[in-house]
Fold this protein.
Amino acid sequence: MTALLLLLLSPLASAADHELDLTVGVDHIQRQDELMSPRTYRGTGPAIAIGWTARGDRLTHKLNLGVELAKIRSQQAWEYTRDGDTRSTHPTNVTFADLQYAVGGQLGGERWSLDLGGTVAGHFEALPWDYGHYGGSGYVGAFEFAPWANLRLQLAKGHSLDVEGWTPAVTWLSRSPYALHDGEYIWHNRDANVPLVILRYIGDGRVVSPVRYAAGHLRLRYAIDLHPRWALLVSTRLDAYHAASPRPATQLQLGASAGLRGRF
Amino acid sequence: MRALIPLIPLIAIASACTPPDDSAVATFDHVWEEFDGMYGGFDIRGVDWDAEYDTWRPTLDEQSTDDDLWETLTGMLAVFDDGHIGMSAPGREYFNGNHVIRDKPDDDAFDIEVVKSEYLTDVEIGPWDGYVLGELEPGLPYVWFPWVDDNTYVLEEIEERYPDARALVIDLRHNGGGSFTYPYWALGMWTGQDLDIHQSRTRSGPERGEFDDWFTWPIQSRTDDPIDLPIVLLTDSYTISAGERMVLGLQALPNTTTIGVRTNGALATSIGREMPNGWFFNLPTQEIRRMDGEIFEAVGCAVDIELLNDPEVLAAGTDEMLEAAMAAAP
């Protein structure tokens, strides 16, 4: 893993211009996942992301890492009793993590530039669902291999807009099995070693086409220079996917965040 | 406006999150179909699911209320008599599909307070009340587990804590279950060779009888010098779920004597589900069998010596089952 990371980072280190983006904000999630429920779940929560861009003479490399947390629910909490004790239902606390690497060739000039290339975008979801008296855990791990584009517009002096997007051609997809907690799932969780459990989940995936997993991703980042080395950053994200099996799941994720961009 | 064109597919996907029909009839149909597509024990429990539909579906129509729906669904689910089936709704008592858990016969045939006050010395309560540990008499330690998780790791320490022990009494009466992989890990210190204990298979598709392959659950030895103590195991009809799989693991050890009554008979892993109207239910999705092929779902794990406390005698301070365990200990 370390060797892979160094391999990915090596072109960044040798590139001419570097940008480091750090943003915090909120994400809204809307999800209908029939592995978990026939109902639509919605919720909002905090998000944090860090991105590193290296622009060389001909190639641009990007590395992004993000984490989002949200309490999602399909209805307001309600109370019931168990052996006479009053209990309440709770929202489902989901955790998402994103890891993306992209590389592209550069077109354009001073007023605009277009990076065209490819990306590997990993997205992992931990879905510990709340069913009142009972719980249930689901997961999604998607590693998308996609054509990728990033358009940078120099709107005015000190004002720039990045528009980034990709849609996967093929995906290494790992989802909960049909009945969620099958023997293999329980075996994967036998030692409660979370990093190892996640790797086991991911290892259980397979390559799927957009027929089984279709997704689209859009990022907008508006930068206002505060200083030659610093800029204020306002960004939005729009992610959507539809997974067809073992039961359909459709998710929309909208985010807005603000932060700083450093140049070095 | 042209800039919004790329958003059209995303808006279409967002609008695909359509609310389900949450009427009583649609909710009934959904629950019936979810059981049809996911329940693992139709054959084992001898339930004719199509016949149940014909019995219960006509009790509902477009005018049916929440009370009507609750009565119909709990009536239909009670047919399974399965402790891993349950249902909850706003303002109502959680419904358990098993008559023992629901109606609590013989619930007063066990009381851990009697064990603690009348029999144990040097009582130790585990973290989060995960176990009650003590000595019944010199050389005879006792441990009670109210549930099954990493609290069972204390089993690895028995010889260390009680170097003069001649046997161990493990009490799983009123054990509410949890995660059986933890005791299987702990019992890896009680065997010098790997032991295959049981197999499970899980529904893998909506067709009845559609299961994945049998999955074998072992106790994997973690020592060349295993703990070599006879075990006397206590069970009752409230020993359920992972507690029952722990019973199978303990009974696979070479010197275990089980005293009590058959366990609840709900070994299969259960999952939560949600109805279109927002109520919750849970159902088991597996078949479980011991390595020799014997099935304990619905009937419970067997005992060597059948015995149940008289509640009046217990209330007077005598746990007859525990005394039988002490007598059975070498």
Notes: The domain at 2-263 of chain A is CATH 2.40.128.100 (Lipocalin). Chain A touches chain B through 49 residues (CB under 8 Å).
